[in-house]
Each structure stands twice: as structure tokens, then as C-alpha cells.
């Protein structure tokens, strides 16, 4: 059972890194300095993870925006990104 949690933590880290790289690609250094990981969870599909994070996307933002980024850790790609309201 211990091995399973180790695999999950490695996969969760991969998912978080993919999401962070995507945020930086879209918003540059501003996202790099303000990126905050809130949660990482597997989706119901194999290899798909949901990453909840927040960061400043624009210099004019009064506060960080919250995003749900869905990633595929097998391919290293972002499947979708949604800004979370409220």
C-alpha cells in the first residue's frame, strides 16, 4: 500500500509542474512569482489530474485569480483551464 501513495505523490508533482509551466507560458514571470498551488487530485480518467491554483495573470489584477487546470501527466499536456469565480 505504501508504494501506491508514493506513485500518487510523484504523479501529483508531475501534474503540478505541468500546470505551473502552463501558467508561466501564458503570464510570464508574474505567474512564476505569484503561483500558489491549492490542491492536486486525480480525475476519474487514468492519467488525468485536476490542479487548483491561483496566480496573478495580469499586472493590473488586484488579487490572484483562481484556476482549475486539467492535465494529462502521460503526455505532459494541458487539457483545459477554467477560471474559478467566487
Describe the structure.
With 86 residues, the protein is α+β, with helices and mostly antiparallel strands. It has a single domain, classed as Nuclear Transport Factor 2, Chain: A (Roll), CATH 3.10.450. Helix content is 37%, strand content 36%. It is built from two helices and four strands, in the order ααββββ. It has helices spanning 2-27, 29-34; strands at residues 36-42, 48-55, 65-72, 77-84. A four-stranded antiparallel beta sheet has the order 1-2-3-4. Strand 1 (36-42) and strand 2 form a beta hairpin. It is globular. Mean pLDDT is 88; it is low at 1-7.
Layout of helices and strands:
Blueprint (H helix, E strand, L loop, with lengths): L1 H26 L1 H6 L1 E7 L5 E8 L9 E8 L4 E8 L2
Antiparallel strand pairs: 1-2, 2-3, 3-4
Amino acid at each position: 500500500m505504501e508504494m501506491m501513495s508514493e506513485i500518487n505523490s510523484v504523479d501529483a508533482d508531475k501534474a503540478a509542474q505541468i500546470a505551473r509551466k502552463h501558467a508561466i507560458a501564458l503570464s510570464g514571470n508574474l505567474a512564476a512569482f505569484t503561483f500558489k498551488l491549492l490542491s492536486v487530485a486525480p480525475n476519474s480518467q487514468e492519467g488525468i489530474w485536476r490542479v487548483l491554483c491561483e496566480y496573478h495573470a495580469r499586472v493590473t489584477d488586484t488579487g490572484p485569480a483562481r484556476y482549475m487546470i486539467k492535465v494529462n501527466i502521460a503526455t505532459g499536456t494541458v487539457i483545459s483551464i477554467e477560471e474559478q469565480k467566487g
